[in-house]
Amino acid sequence: MAIFRVPKINTAQRRELTLSASEIVYDLDTSSYYGGDGYSVGGFEIGKTAGLKMKTENFSLTMGNIIEKRVILTKLPDNPQNVRLIPEGGIEQNFGIDFTVELNELSWDSLGLDGFFEVGDVINVIYFHY
User: Bridge-partner residues for 100, per DSSP?
Assistant: First the structure.
């Protein structure tokens, strides 16, 4: 029989960590297990809802989107740097190089995608929100 031992740390230590997706630790102070999602500092208590929900939005770009070089997300992303933008039929774009997100506005003005999109192009945006 194999035994899997989960790392044990205190709350102060856990609150300084960003646990990777599928990483687990045991908090000695709370007597609870915490899991990671790759971006939430301190992780989330396993067995309780993390409070984050994944949102996928598909935008068929209009002339207004092209002129303004932006789309408005329906929710406020939890962490803008974790927003994923994938043009339909293309590859995932890079935050800060190809696009940025401020509040719920995703824009590509003066970045790698500037001048790339045309009316009718579809972009897929994936992010987490509360």
Answer: 107
- Pinpoint the alpha helices (H) of 4-117: 11-14, 63-68
Q: What is the pLDDT of residue 48?
A: 63
Model pLDDT for residues 82-127, shown as the tens digit of each residue: 899 999 999 999 999 999 999 999 999 888 888 899 999 999 999 9
**SS3 category, 24:** strand
- In the DSSP assignment, the letter for residue 20 is P
Specify burial of residue 125 (Cβ count, 10 A radius: 0-12, 13-18, 19+).
buried
**Under a CB-based contact definition with an 8 Å cutoff, are residues 117 and 73 in contact?**
no
Say if strands 44-45 and 100-102 run parallel, antiparallel, or are unpaired: unpaired
What is the identity of the amino acid at 77? P
Residue type, 27: D
